[in-house]
Amino acid sequence: MRARLRVLSTKTIYSGKVVELRLDQVIEPGGVVASREVVCHPGSVVVLPRLPDGRVVLVRQYRYAVRQWLWELVAGSMDPGETPEESARRELREETGYRARTVKLLLDFYPSPGFLSERFFLVEAQGLTRAKAQPEADEQIEVGHFTRSQLVNMLHRKQIRDAKTLVAILWLVCSHNVSI
Q: Is residue 23 part of a domain?
């Protein structure tokens, strides 16, 4: 029988608007005694918006942490009690103005499980219709529409550097037999 994780102590180092930083003393299932720094996050949604002609909607935003403008898929933190599908509809409308007739949960993944608890839910949005975008006050967003081949070219040219967008585009390419 495998040993279970034992948390010996937990100390909150920082608690902010988006994340919490914890220092945990643990005995891991393999018996390793360790100090673990954990950035706690409530979870996020990443939206793969697909237009009727097959193009994918991306947004370009400035990301202060890396000091760059990045092309990304629509994404954001989930509100308490919100399902990934509800969060996807809200984020899509806020950032792009599009409304989706259908949303479908495709997969979930951890972007950096070595120290971050955040779980991403990849949701595909289809049947898009235009409405008015409602970005947050601190968001400057450019909306772009890209074919699969344009996305593949962007991958080859290393123009997409955001991990959640890479995961989603690779899922799209691999699941639709588009060669890279």
A: yes
